[in-house]
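Posting for a labmate who doesn't have an account.
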Amino acid sequence: MNKQPEVEINQKIRDREIRLIGEDGEQLGIMSAEAANRIADERNLDLVKISPQAKPPVCKLMDYSKYKFEKSKKEKEAKKNQKQNELKKIWLSMTIDRHDLETKARSAAKFCVAGNKVEVSIRMKGRQQAHAKLGVGVMHDFYSIIEDVCVIEKAPTTEGRNILMIIAPKKQV
């Protein structure tokens, strides 16, 4: 796992001099770590090193448990907003039956409702390559079933032995 380095607090701060910032953000000046710890004890707060690379290191007076909670809350929010939509794949055949096509279309509609894009592919075998237009027709039949929840992002195109189409969720108004 990728564990972040632990933040130094209170007596764990061993630097000779630190720059101290109060709980309201005001500069309290440069002082020894011991003096800063005394100030933190008087105010019933923790001394937290927030910028260890600075010269001298910057420490702030704050409630450490509240700081950790806020930090974890921000990280969770950032992780939630970072979610990437996946590209789901569905394979069809040129000789697919109507019911099977509807079943695959329903699963593609579920993917679109969940916010994912769907790549629909048909692999042509043997003589089917000479009749690629039939495959494009199957793609259009597939799309006509789910056009109420999806839009075509990339129209059906033939690439080698495959016919590909990408559909995406409709934008909500």
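Reply:
Got it, the structure tokens are right above this. The mean pLDDT is 88.
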